[in-house]
Amino acid sequence: xxxxQLIYFTEVARQQSFTKAAKALHVTQPTLSKVxxxxxxxxxxxxxxxxxxxxxxxxxxxxxxxxxxxxxxxVDEVHLVLEDLEDLKKGKIKLGMPPLIGILFFPILMKExxxxxxxxxxTLDEVGANLVKQKVYEGDLDGGFVMLPAHExxxxxxxxxxxxxxxxxxxxxxxxxRENISMIDLKEEKMLLFSDDFTIHDRxxxxxxxxxxxxxxxxxxxxxxxISQMVEHNLGVALFPQSIAAKANQEKIKTIPVYPVxxxxxxxxxxxxxxxxxxxxxxxxxxxxxxxxxx
Length: 295
Known about the structure:
The protein has 295 residues and is of the alpha/beta class. It has 3 domains: 3-84, Winged helix-like DNA-binding domain superfamily/Winged helix DNA-binding domain (Arc Repressor Mutant, subunit A); 86-159 and 266-289, D-Maltodextrin-Binding Protein, domain 2, CATH 3.40.190.10; 161-264, 3-Layer(aba) Sandwich (D-Maltodextrin-Binding Protein, domain 2). It has 10 helices and 11 strands. The strands form 2 sheets. Strands 3, 4, 5, 6, 7, 8, 9, 10 and 11 form a 9-stranded mixed sheet that branches. A hairpin with a 6-residue loop joins β1 (48-49) and β2 (56-57). α1 (3-15) packs across α4. The N and C termini lie far apart (53 Å). The mean pLDDT is 90. Pfam families: HTH_1, LysR_substrate. Keywords: DNA-binding, Transcription, Transcription regulation. One of its GO terms (cellular component) is cytosol. It comes from Kurthia zopfii.
């Protein structure tokens, strides 16, 4: 058994498909199948059930998958430690950041960070907060920005910024005359939500359920500007973080505070008990000193 076999096997488990895993790994499907089959032969057990449309783990496969992730993480950490020893002034950071956060903060953050550490390279994976959490947990990212909550038993949290969630409606909408809104006021409204890989998607549904109703979801998108345009055409209402709501077309859209307040709390997360590279430590130090309100 070698690390390459474990990497190939875990990718098939993630993708639930040999075809998709082969594409992600940049190898041919026959090569991938051969490597996984060899691993199964060495362990004398079936790891992947190939009888279904999706390639799913057997019970034995799940046990091997959980341990394989830890082994791969340990090997990655050895490489990180050696890279850190070679040159403490350079480094690479793989960050996850939801598009909403990226729009507001990433350009300013990078400008200031690169002034201090011009030789540190940052690779950005722009996905929803739920996917950022998953990728940080699995070791695919060094860290990432997410909307809370995040499981504190799994991650170390570095608070970044906090805003309120506001409602946006078309100026001709009957709610546009209101100075503030409670969630129960949205019971009969067509709601436009972010896709389910965004934590704010889950949070809005949770707040609706707390108010005693299930939201009438008219449309789901990962693009804030597309949702905003739907509101411009009076096709529904949406709940946005305050800074994103301010970017909507104010000639056609009214922004209204929501009470009780729904906080949009953003933190940077790293996985607990995982080696943190020198470059990532410098980024965390930078965040701790950073004023998110700076212009």
